[in-house]
Amino acid sequence: MFNDIGLLEVLTIVVLAVLIFGPDKLPKVIQDVAGFIRKIRDFSDSAKRDIREELGPEFKDFEFEDLNPKTFIRKQLENDDLGLKDIRDSFDLRKEMGDVADAVNGREEAESVAGPAENGPVDLTKRPEKSAPVAAGERPPFDIDAT
User: Fold this and answer.
1) How is residue 66 annotated by DSSP?
2) Model pTM?
């Protein structure tokens, strides 16, 4: 419950409790708070027990943590009855993005399979000349000032 509270926060709470309640009343306050938390836990456990009894035997393995959407989705994905893992593994995001980039740049499918290694590395520091238009299958020059 309090996994993210560090030593400094605990020390601050203790100092504030001593200042607010005083050293004489502090043990009584701690006992009252502990008793209150215990009563809340007992009430919660009895309510869960009553709900499970009312739901019947078909919900005997029902956990209230399953009502949290993140937990529910995680359990369903681990179950994988639909074969979602195969679909996820077959999807190659880099290839899809490369295909989209090729379609935007107007390159052919054969050129995208060859990849940029045939064209060589692009020198980003070299300024392009304002000359001939780009031939089909060539990359347009990169203008570093235009970005």
Assistant:
1) G
2) 0.41
